[in-house]
Fold:
Amino acid sequence: MDNLYIQKVLNGDYTGFSYFVDKYKDMAYSIAFRIVNNSEDAEEIVQDSFVKSFKSLNKFRHDSKFSTWFYRIVVNNSLSKVKRRKIDSGNIDLENVSNVVIEEIESTYYQLTQADQQKYINIALNHLNAEDSLLLTLYYLNENSLDEISEITEIKNENLKMKIHRARQKMYIVLEKELKSEIKNLL
Amino acid sequence: MDNINVDNFTKEIISGSKLELTNPDFNKTLMGKIKAENRKRIIYANIKLYALMFISIDAAIIVLLNLTGIRVSDIALKISFLNRGFENFYSNPEELISIYFTVLFAVIIIIMLFSRTGYSYFKTQEG
Structure:
């Protein structure tokens, strides 16, 4: 379907581009937000990224999916905005998260309302550095493959599995701390 | 809890982190920018095409004049002779002709720039 609309736009029908806007704007916004951590900047980045992709659509060589190519533009624009060349990979002390802790988090999590679930997961992701939250968003939310994530983030494929695993551990560490009061109340 | 379960649970909780653009004017603003960009692209393609056409036509005229041995000064004399016919209607026929051609070319250029000819031509060239 993407290819059909790409052809449409390349043939001069710019209105066909609204298909890509509707389909990818929210995910692009999530990606930008994970890097710049500011909703206004993220929205501006998404707009610029769409315009940029429209301008260079004739350079898209179909080596990858349109979404992968487009999200790469979003990541680059976000990095330009925060004036960094690489995604921030600052650190949180990595402790070993046992399965027992994850089971505790799971049981507490299911007792929260949907609004609270969203609140806590967003708090946890905001506590992580840009690289970790971006990797988790791409892998678990957008279900990108490791190859696609490698292309979007320019992180070597062989390091990705470990980085995603660590990002997940860090998220559970933050989530455990955030949920501690909830756990106490519930126990 | 094995890894698959942890993975599934992680997927489930992260699905709750999905962010959505809430600005109702987002699409309208963006498509406005895309429309402006599209117009720029069409104008640029037309400028390229007509510049190429004018250069080619000028070059062809120069070659033709050289081959046929016609001198430009002879043609200029004939045009100046024709101009005299306008003197009965307008006190300054050169100015009238000049205004006429300026307006005519301005209209032609505007129509050319906003047409899709240049864009379609270069699109065909790119294949």
